[in-house]
UniProtKB/TrEMBL annotation:
<dbReference type="Pfam" id="PF04191">
    <property type="entry name" value="PEMT"/>
</dbReference>
<dbReference type="GO" id="GO:0000773">
    <property type="term" value="F:phosphatidyl-N-methylethanolamine N-methyltransferase activity"/>
</dbReference>
<keyword id="KW-0496">Mitochondrion</keyword>
<dbReference type="InterPro" id="IPR024960">
    <property type="entry name" value="PEMT/MFAP"/>
</dbReference>
<keyword id="KW-0812">Transmembrane</keyword>
<protein>
    <recommendedName>
        <fullName>Phosphatidylethanolamine N-methyltransferase</fullName>
        <ecNumber>2.1.1.17</ecNumber>
        <ecNumber>2.1.1.71</ecNumber>
    </recommendedName>
</protein>
<feature type="transmembrane region" description="Helical">
    <location>
        <begin position="20"/>
        <end position="37"/>
    </location>
</feature>
<dbReference type="GO" id="GO:0005789">
    <property type="term" value="C:endoplasmic reticulum membrane"/>
</dbReference>
<keyword id="KW-0949">S-adenosyl-L-methionine</keyword>
<feature type="transmembrane region" description="Helical">
    <location>
        <begin position="95"/>
        <end position="124"/>
    </location>
</feature>
<keyword id="KW-0444">Lipid biosynthesis</keyword>
<keyword id="KW-0472">Membrane</keyword>
<keyword id="KW-0443">Lipid metabolism</keyword>
<keyword id="KW-0594">Phospholipid biosynthesis</keyword>
<dbReference type="InterPro" id="IPR007318">
    <property type="entry name" value="Phopholipid_MeTrfase"/>
</dbReference>
<keyword id="KW-0256">Endoplasmic reticulum</keyword>
<keyword id="KW-0489">Methyltransferase</keyword>
Length: 204
């Protein structure tokens, strides 16, 4: 059971009306919304592929934009933590090293996901018609679904613990929620793309 009193004390440290905190929440929510809207628009119209001359060039451009947005999100996240108080009793070595370990695991999942999928596989290449030959089942996909998302969430969780930051923990929850919503939209849509591919192969 959740200790409600502990949660109230924890988030009593967080000023949700602080401008930096609000900007961080907006940046977290905006990123998956942006890449889902743009990728679906591209899948429907092929407009980006036409502008950039090829689906691969368009995908690389979108990937670069996503990377920049993720850097902005991380900066906003860090600044929001810095502007709010630390949690008393958590600013110790054990908290720091626990956070460091969690961030390391998250980084492992993110990097190994990228290596398994490649650039276009990571950055929505299937929406551009750049489809993989088969579903990736090697590590880290053999351990959990969507390891890129949950690895990223773990990095933010670890970063929050390293800073003993209640604001960071709350923002990490926002990251987890935004990714959960993204998965609900992306999963079925991506599966449909590959179903259509299989239909095309069978009809030949």
């Amino acid at each position: 059971q959740v200790d409600v009193a502990a949660m109230v004390r924890l988030f009593g440290y967080v000023d949700v009306t602080d401008t930096g905190f609000i900007v961080a929440v907006l940046s977290i929510a905006f990123n998956p919304l942006f890449w889902n809207v743009v990728a679906r628009w591209e899948h429907k119209t092929r407009a980006l592929s036409q502008v950039f001359g090829s689906p691969r060039a368009a995908c690389y451009c979108l990937g670069a934009v996503i990377l920049v947005l993720n850097c902005v999100r991380s900066h906003c996240f860090t600044e929001a933590m810095k502007s709010q108080p630390k949690l008393e009793g958590w600013d110790y070595h054990w908290t720091y090293y626990s956070g460091l370990a969690i961030s390391a695991v998250g980084t492992l999942f993110v990097i190994s996901s990228f290596l398994a999928l490649g650039f276009t596989g990571t950055f929505l290449g299937d929406y551009f018609g750049i489809l993989m030959e088969e579903k990736v089942t090697s590590f880290p996909f053999s351990v959990l679904d969507n390891p890129m998302y949950w690895g990223s969430t773990a990095i933010y969780l670890g970063w929050s613990l390293m800073h003993a930051s209640p604001a960071g923990l709350l923002l990490t929850a926002v990251v987890a929620i935004s990714y959960t919503i993204a998965v609900l939209y992306e999963g079925p849509f991506t599966e449909e793309i590959y179903r259509q591919k299989q239909k095309g192969v069978k009809s030949k």
